[in-house]
Amino acid sequence: MTDIMGISKKPLKVAGKASYYYKLDGRRLSLSTTNYSEACRLLRSIKDAYLKGKIQRITGENDKNLGQFADEFEAWAIETQPVKTFKANRLAMRKVIDIEGRTKRLDMLTLKTMDELKRTHRHLKPSSINNYVRHAKAVMNKAVEWGYLKANPFKGAKLLPQAKRVGFIEPKEISEFIRSIEDVGLRRFVVACLATGRRRSELVALRWEDIMWDRREYFIAKEKRHLCKTYPMSASFLAVLKSMPRGKGRIFNRYAHADTYTHEVKRALERGGFGHLSLHDLRHSFSVAMLESGGGMKALQKLLGHSEFRVTADTYADVTDDALQLAVNLVRLGPLDLTTDKK
């Protein structure tokens, strides 16, 4: 059994140097002093530290403080993480240290730290605060991996709600945007996005074998069988398919990597005056155009492939409010005289 044995009865001379010694695991270790009182004091300190370490191993506690861990993490992260990730993680840790101080023990951190972070930065946008929270969680996961903590103290920290309107092209501007795309292959892909509301991954994976011409439907395959669905084909999407030479395999096979479609569509949006939008916003543009044309939210849910109605309703809540404002004015009562009495 590992333990510390008592001090030697007198200083021993080893390699020409005299000193009191103690034993640990059968090894004789120097106290580097010939003064008995000093040797006893040093041994008490060693025993206290040893006992503390023994208790920590039993209880799982660790006396590593926030500053020590932050320094270790930064030294590791700067060599291993992408620059953007490293900087975001470092900033989050500095925010935590601003609140708790460098001497705070890691195992004393709680969710209160994250609550305090949200309070002290309440003047910032929710997205900025959420970024700090996410990266603080990620850094503390490393403390768990390294054995400094049993569990992540920030694991249960909730993100702030973010009010965000979806980006889209106004329905009346869609035709002009389509005409602005010079490359016909890219134009076909963009029209397919706008005419179906499909995600990029779904359109890029779509195959000629998935088209049911006689029924004017197309099939979207998913890894999970219950998510595979058949969707009706709009006249615009049918026009896209008819404009292309039929073949086998992927319909949109111009680029090997799906990201290339994202980049090319982004360039087209920028040239068309919609640089603030992305490829995914073409899906939103389809949804907004449908709702403003009188389409129902339930039908939109099915066409988008959302498994829950709540997702569709929450995403397009602002859009439906605007649509209602337009719809209420569809009821026209003609010229009204509301200022004079009729005899």
Automatic annotation (TrEMBL):
<dbReference type="GO" id="GO:0015074">
    <property type="term" value="P:DNA integration"/>
</dbReference>
<protein>
    <submittedName>
        <fullName>Integrase family protein</fullName>
    </submittedName>
</protein>
<dbReference type="InterPro" id="IPR050090">
    <property type="entry name" value="Tyrosine_recombinase_XerCD"/>
</dbReference>
<dbReference type="Pfam" id="PF00589">
    <property type="entry name" value="Phage_integrase"/>
</dbReference>
<keyword id="KW-0238">DNA-binding</keyword>
<comment type="similarity">
    <text>Belongs to the 'phage' integrase family.</text>
</comment>
<keyword id="KW-0233">DNA recombination</keyword>
<dbReference type="InterPro" id="IPR011010">
    <property type="entry name" value="DNA_brk_join_enz"/>
</dbReference>
<dbReference type="GO" id="GO:0006310">
    <property type="term" value="P:DNA recombination"/>
</dbReference>
<dbReference type="GO" id="GO:0003677">
    <property type="term" value="F:DNA binding"/>
</dbReference>
<dbReference type="InterPro" id="IPR010998">
    <property type="entry name" value="Integrase_recombinase_N"/>
</dbReference>
<dbReference type="InterPro" id="IPR002104">
    <property type="entry name" value="Integrase_catalytic"/>
</dbReference>
<dbReference type="InterPro" id="IPR013762">
    <property type="entry name" value="Integrase-like_cat_sf"/>
</dbReference>
<feature type="domain" description="Tyr recombinase">
    <location>
        <begin position="164"/>
        <end position="329"/>
    </location>
</feature>
